[in-house]
Automatic annotation (TrEMBL):
Residues 1-24 are annotated as: Disordered. Its main location: cytoplasm. It comes from Picea sitchensis. Residues 35-63 form the C2H2-type domain. GO terms for cellular component: cytoplasm; nucleus. Signal peptide: none annotated. This is C2H2-type domain-containing protein. InterPro entries: MBS1/2-like (IPR045230), ZNF706/At2g23090_sf (IPR026939), Znf_C2H2_type (IPR013087). It comes from the Eukaryota. It is found in: Cytoplasm; Nucleus. Residues 1-19 have a biased composition (Basic and acidic residues). One of its GO terms (molecular function) is zinc ion binding.
Length: 68
């Protein structure tokens, strides 16, 4: 009987471990996106993305100075 109980416990632990994390992906996304383009209000994750965004979407404008 010990093996049967161990199997059931292992299945229960694996089920708990494999459950998706509770919470919204929108909340995680909002926490990660910290920089905003002042022209078009697009939210970006870091300063490098701001530079890439300006070079592709606003080529005539200069990117804002780094705030960090």
């Amino acid at each position: 009987m010990t093996r049967g109980k161990q199997k059931i416990e292992a299945q229960r632990r694996n089920a708990e471990k494999n459950q998706k994390a509770k919470g919204s992906q929108f909340e995680a996304r909002a926490a990660a996106l910290k920089f905003t383009c002042p022209i078009c209000k697009v939210q970006l994750a870091n300063q490098n993305q701001i530079g890439d965004h300006y070079s592709s979407k606003h080529p005539k404008e200069k990117p804002p100075p780094q705030s960090e």
